[in-house]
C-alpha cells in the first residue's frame, strides 16, 4: 500500500521514526474502506532524513528486486541510531530519533508495473468470464432483478451460503431459501426455528441466524433499503464482513471495490508470486490493495466474480489448468515454473535472464521464507503458502436416542434444544452430556440427563450402541451413542419447555445438525428394544474377540463336560 510520502523516498527504502510516533490510522488510496492501520512516518520532512542517511558512507542496501554488482553482495541492511544521523536533519527530530530502520517491504516484482498492465489483466479476465462463466441461480436472479434491494438480497444470501461451502451444495439450499423467502421482508418475518430448519445440514449455523438478523435490521431500522456501499454494509449489518460487504456493493450496486476470498487469494498469490503467509496481516493488506487496484470500474461486479470463478474452476488448489488460464502470460508463478524447468534441463547456460525477486536478502515480506524452498513437483501450486493449522481440539459427548415405540400416533423420539448461543446455537439434538474419553461415569450422568427431561426411566434398558465422530471447524467431537426404548411403559405425555417428541419423518425435516443425523443412523442400525430374533436386534458393537464358527462351537461343545444346559445348546446349534 502507498502512503503519502515523497516518491523519491518510496522508490528505494522506507524511513520510519518509531521514537515518539505510534501506530495510527493513515489514509490509503488503494483500500476499499479508505484506511488501514499502519505505522505513521514522522511529521518532519522525510527527504531531509533521507539525505542525511545517504551522506553516511557504506549504507548501501541491496534492493529486493534488483541484482546488484558483486561488491554489494553480502551486505546486510543497516540499522542507524540517532547518533549516526547527520546534523542536516532538524535538531528536534535528531534528539527524538532513537532508531531508523531501512527496509524495502514490497518489491515491484510482486506488483503491477503500470496502468497498461492492469488494463490487459482486466480485459483478458473479463473476456474469459463472458465466455466461460457458470450458469448459477444467484447470478441469474441478480442479473434479471431490477429492484436494487431485491438484487442486493439475492447476492447477500448467496455470498453468505457460499462461505466455506461448495457451490454444488449451495445450489439446492439457495433455491429452496429464495422460494420460501423471496424478499428481505419475508425473511425478517420468519422464525429462527424456520431459518435453522432450512439451514440444517449446510454447516456454520450462525450464518443463517445472522442473515436473518441483518434482514430484520434492514426492515425495521433502515426503511427496507440495503446500504449501497461496502463501508456502510460492513458497519450496519450484523455478520457482514469486509468480503461480503464488497461482494454485495460491487455486484448489486456497481461500487468499484475489490474483494478477497480464498479463490482470489490463490489467484493473486500465483499471478504475483506471493509466497509469504497469506494469512498474515501484512500479506492480507497487500492482497486487498492488489484487488482494489485491479477491479474494473466499469464492471466491478463481473470482475470480482470473474476472479473468484478463475480460482474456483481453473486456478484450483491442486492440478490447476494453466493452459486454459486467461492471464497465464502475466503469471509470475507460471514464469517461475518455466524458469525452473529450463534450469533443470540445462537448456540455458547459467541462470536465465528472467525478472525475479531476491528472498535471500531477507527483506521482501511477500516472498516465501528461505526455510521453504521451491518444490519442483508442485509447480504453480507452490503458491500460496499453506498456513499451518492447529488441529481441532478433541471433545467427547455421551448422547442417547430415547424412543417411545408405542406412543400415540406412532413411535416418537425425544429431542431437546441447544442454548441460544455457542456451538450449534438453537438447534435440536438428542439429550447429551459432556463425557471424558475414558467413559467413566458417563452412563450415570446421561441417565440423569434423560430423567430430567422424561421422568423416571428403567436404567437397565440403557444400551451403548457404538460411537460416531464429527469434526466442526475447530472441534472434533466424538459421540458415544446410547439407545433406550420405552417398551411396555406408559407413554410420556408431559414435555418440559425446550423438549419435544418427534416422529421419524419430523426428525428428518427438523433443525438438527449433521452430527445428530449420524447419531440417529447408528441408532437405526443397532436399535435396542426390538423383538428378539429380528435382524436389527442382532446387530451389536464390534467385539475385540472373534466369534468362533458354528463348526468350531460344535467341536468345543463336544470336548467340554456335558451338562444338561449344554445338550440343549448343542441341539439348537445342530438345527
Features:
disordered C terminus; globular; 21 helices; seven-stranded mixed beta sheet; alpha+beta; three-stranded antiparallel beta sheet; Endonuclease3_FeS-loop_motif; disordered N terminus; 575 residues; iron-sulfur
Describe the structure.
By secondary structure, the protein is of the alpha+beta class. Helices cover 39% and strands 12% of the residues. The protein is built from 21 helices and 12 strands. It has helices spanning 7-10, 46-55, 91-96, 115-132, 137-144, 148-162, 167-180, 184-188, 192-199, 206-221, 230-236, 242-253, 262-271, 281-294, 300-313, 332-345, 442-454, 504-509, 514-525, 550-559, 564-574; strands at residues 14-17, 23-27, 35-39, 79-81, 99-103, 393-404, 412-417, 428-429, 432-434, 463-471, 475-485, 499-502. Strands 6, 7, 8, 9, 10, 11 and 12 form a 7-stranded mixed β-sheet that branches. A hairpin with a 7-residue loop joins strand 2 and strand 3 (35-39). Helix 5 runs antiparallel to helix 6 (148-162) and helix 11 packs across helix 12 (242-253). The radius of gyration is 33 Å and the shape is globular. The termini are far apart. Mean pLDDT is 77; it is low at 1-104, 529-546 and 554-575.
Amino acid at each position: 500500500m502507498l502512503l503519502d510520502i515523497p516518491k523519491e523516498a518510496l522508490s528505494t527504502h522506507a524511513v520510519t521514526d518509531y521514537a515518539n510516533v505510534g501506530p495510527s490510522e493513515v489514509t490509503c488510496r488503494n483500500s476499499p474502506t479508505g484506511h488501514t492501520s499502519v505505522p505513521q512516518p514522522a511529521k518532519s520532512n522525510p527527504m531531509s532524513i533521507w539525505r542525511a542517511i545517504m551522506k553516511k558512507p557504506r549504507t548501501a542496501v541491496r534492493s529486493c528486486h534488483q541484482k546488484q554488482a558483486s561488491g554489494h553482495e553480502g551486505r546486510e541492511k543497516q540499522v542507524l541510531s540517532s547518533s549516526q544521523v547527520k546534523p542536516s536533519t532538524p535538531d528536534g527530530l535528531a534528539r527524538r530519533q532513537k532508531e531508523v530502520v531501512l527496509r524495502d517491504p514490497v518489491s515491484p516484482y510482486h506488483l503491477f508495473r503500470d496502468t497498461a498492465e492492469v488494463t490487459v489483466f482486466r480485459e483478458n479476465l473479463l473476456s474469459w468470464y463472458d465466455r466461460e462463466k457458470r450458469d448459477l441461480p444467484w447470478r441469474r436472479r441478480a442479473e434479471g432483478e431490477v429492484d436494487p434491494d431485491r438484487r442486493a438480497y439475492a447476492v447477500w444470501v448467496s455470498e453468505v451460503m457460499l462461505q466455506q461451502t461448495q457451490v454444488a451444495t449451495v445450489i439446492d439450499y439457495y433455491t429452496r431459501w429464495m422460494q420460501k423467502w423471496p424478499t428481505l421482508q419475508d425473511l425478517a418475518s420468519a422464525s429462527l426455528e424456520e431459518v435453522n430448519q432450512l439451514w440444517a445440514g449446510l454447516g456454520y449455523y450462525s450464518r443463517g441466524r445472522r442473515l436473518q438478523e441483518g434482514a430484520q435490521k434492514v426492515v425495521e431500522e433502515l426503511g427496507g433499503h440495503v446500504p449501497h456501499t461496502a463501508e456502510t454494509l460492513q458497519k450496519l449489518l450484523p455478520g457482514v464482513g469486509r468480503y461480503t460487504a464488497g461482494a454485495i456493493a460491487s455486484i448489486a450496486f456497481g461500487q468499484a471495490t475489490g474483494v478477497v476470498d480464498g479463490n482470489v487469494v490463490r489467484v493473486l498469490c500465483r499471478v504475483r508470486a506471493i509466497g509469504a503467509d497469506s494469512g498474515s496481516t501484512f500479506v492480507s493488506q497487500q492482497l486487498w490493495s492488489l484487488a482494489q487496484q485491479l477491479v474494473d470500474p466499469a464492471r466491478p461486479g463481473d470482475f470480482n466474480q470473474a476472479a473468484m470463478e478463475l480460482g474456483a474452476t481453473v486456478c484450483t488448489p491442486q492440478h490447476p489448468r494453466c493452459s486454459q488460464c486467461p492471464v497465464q502470460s502475466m503469471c509470475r508463478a507460471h514464469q517461475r515454473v518455466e524458469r525452473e524447468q529450463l534450469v533443470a534441463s540445462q537448456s540455458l547456460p547459467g541462470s536465465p535472464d528472467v525478472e525475479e525477486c531476491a528472498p535471500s536478502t531477507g527483506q521482501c515480506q511477500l516472498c516465501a521464507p528461505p526455510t521453504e524452498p521451491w518444490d519442483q513437483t508442485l509447480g504453480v501450486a507452490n503458491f500460496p503458502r499453506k498456513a499451518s493449522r492447529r488441529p481441532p481440539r478433541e471433545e467427547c459427548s455421551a448422547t442417547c436416542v430415547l424412543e417411545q415405540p408405542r406412543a400415540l400416533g406412532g413411535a416418537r423420539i425425544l429431542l431437546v434444544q441447544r442454548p441460544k448461543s455457542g456451538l450449534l446455537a438453537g438447534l435440536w439434538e438428542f439429550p447429551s452430556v459432556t463425557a471424558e474419553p475414558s467413559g467413566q461415569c458417563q452412563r450415570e450422568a446421561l441417565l440423569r440427563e434423560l430423567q430430567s427431561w422424561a421422568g423416571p426411566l428403567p436404567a437397565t434398558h440403557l444400551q451403548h450402541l457404538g460411537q460416531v465422530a464429527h469434526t466442526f471447524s475447530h472441534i472434533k467431537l466424538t459421540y458415544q451413542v446410547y439407545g433406550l426404548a420405552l417398551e411396555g411403559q406408559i407413554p410420556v405425555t408431559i414435555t418440559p419447555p425446550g423438549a419435544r417428541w418427534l416422529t421419524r419423518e419430523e426428525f428428518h425435516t427438523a433443525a438438527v445438525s449433521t452430527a445428530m443425523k449420524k447419531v440417529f443412523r447408528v441408532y437405526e442400525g443397532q436399535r435396542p428394544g426390538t423383538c428378539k430374533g429380528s435382524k436389527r436386534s442382532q446387530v451389536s458393537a464390534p467385539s475385540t474377540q472373534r466369534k468362533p464358527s458354528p463348526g468350531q462351537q460344535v467341536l468345543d461343545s463336544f470336548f467340554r463336560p456335558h451338562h444338561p444346559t449344554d445338550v440343549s445348546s448343542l441341539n439348537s446349534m445342530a438345527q
